[in-house]
Amino acid sequence: MKEGPASQEKVIRLEDVTAGYQRGKPVIDGIDLEVCRNDFLAVIGPNGGGKSTLIKVILGLLEPWHGTVEVLGGPPGQAWGEVGYVPQVMPEETFPITVMDVVLMGRLKSAGRPGWFGGKDRRRAMEDLERLDVADLAYTDMNSLSGGQKQRVLIARALAGDPEILMLDEPVASVDHETQESFFNLLARMNENMTIVMVTHDVGAVSSHIKSIACINRLLVSHGDTISQETVSRAYGCPFELISHGGVPHRVLGRNDEGSRR
Q: 3-state class of 203 per DSSP?
């Protein structure tokens, strides 16, 4: 894990935030979280623990029932042009749109509105497609791509707008290991001038790049530049350890009291 961010300027701040989708059943509860400029925060926790819900609250896609949320000093909705987002999954609906059209949507901040994209916007979009090794698909119908290819395109769209904050929800779940490694190296370079918040199930794979970790299971179990095995085990509800496989550390959930794997 890298050293924490040099700046102490808070670009994301949550205070006593509770949110969910059905009243009386909060998915996240009483969350206090601050993210400094140029931090690289990994958000980990068990399935259903509230990681994606936390991201939606920060993005302004889900209004909290209680508490306050600030992004770049104001309400989340006011910062939309400065925040890039890569979702966990692609929508199932199909649209007649090319890869280039999708990536250009990330340039709305500079273009003003769709259809006003100039040569500079298209060059930048192509550069980001090249970074993700899908430039040859620029004028391909988005619906014809594989899951991994679609994920790379969404990553390129998020990068195209030069956001101050990049939010990623399991961004490499559908891409191969070689692409993952290349992508994490790219994020590390971008982190010099960009704050990154990434939900991940495999903190070991990015451990050499991240600067802090937040462990969430409805409550914020831990947040800082270090995290203990005991803390993570408590969040997951069973023993937790990291093992190395092929030189890359991975998380492994151990046996619970009944002897079965979680």
A: helix
Rounded to 10 degrees, the C-alpha dihedral 92/95/98/99 comes to -20
pTM of this prediction? 0.79
Sheet of 66-71, strands arranged across: 26-36, 10-20, 66-71
Helix, strand, or coil (residue 206):
helix
Spatial distance between the Cα atoms of 103 and 184, rounded to a whole number of angstroms: 20
Question: Are 166 and 190 within 8 A, CB to CB?
Answer: yes
Taking the C-alpha atoms of residue 157 and residue 117, their distance in angstroms, rounded to an integer, is 14
- Residue 227 CB coordination number (10 Å): 20
Kindly provide the residue ranges of all beta strands, DSSP E only, lying in the chain, ordered along the sequence.
10-20, 26-36, 40-44, 66-71, 83-86, 165-169, 195-199, 212-217, 219-224, 240-245, 248-253
SS3 state of residue 58: helix
Q: What pLDDT, on a 0 to 100 scale, did the predictor assign at position 155?
A: 86
User: How far is the C-alpha of 208 from the C-alpha of 178, rounded, in Å?
Assistant: 16
Q: In which region does residue 80 sit, left (phi positive, over 0), alpha (psi from -120 to 50) or beta (all else)? A: alpha
Element spanning 109, H or E: helix 108-111
Model confidence pLDDT, tens digit, residues 122-131? 999 999 999 8
- Distance in angstroms between the alpha carbons of the first and the last residue of the chain: 26
d(CA 162, CA 109): 9
Residue 197's nearest CA partner among 47, 20, 35, 76 is 35
What residues pair up with 42 in beta bridges, in sequence order? 198, 213
CA distance 207 to 190: 16
Average pLDDT in the chain: 81
The CATH number of the structural domain formed by 6-82+165-261 is 3.40.50.300
